[in-house]
Amino acid sequence: MRSKLLWPLLAALLFFGCEKRIYRHKYAEPSRPITCLKLQSDNLLTKSLLQDRYRFTDDCPFRLKTTSHFVSTCTSAKAKALGSDFDGFLRFELYERDRLLYRGQIDFKGCLSEGVVSRLFDLLRKENDL
What we know:
The protein is an alpha+beta fold. The chain has one domain (22-127). It has helices at 2-17, 44-51, 77-82, 114-127, and strands at 22-26, 38-40, 62-70, 88-96, 99-108. The chain has a five-stranded mixed β-sheet with strand order 1-5-4-3-2, covered by helices on one side. The longest helix has 16 residues, at 2-17. It is globular, with a radius of gyration of 18 Å.
């Protein structure tokens, strides 16, 4: 009887455990409406995918900073034993001059994809009226 209840519970945990959660926080309101964005990105893939979605300009007080991290190896014995929940993360930070307005981050499995970038950027636009 217990095993009949245990299998659906485990299946549900596996299914819901694979969902990509977005962590976000709004720190401050902009001093004026956001009508432009300057892009600061060291990752060429992220930069290219964002430039396909938005027209960035160099002369703007609002800056979108991207940070990418890819887990390639892990020497932690605990991480090796338990495995990793993600292969990397992508973080977007929205600044007005040097003041942080908003931060959003998504963890992902596999390779960084257009879907991951789009999902995070669409949420940033929605929550900041871009």
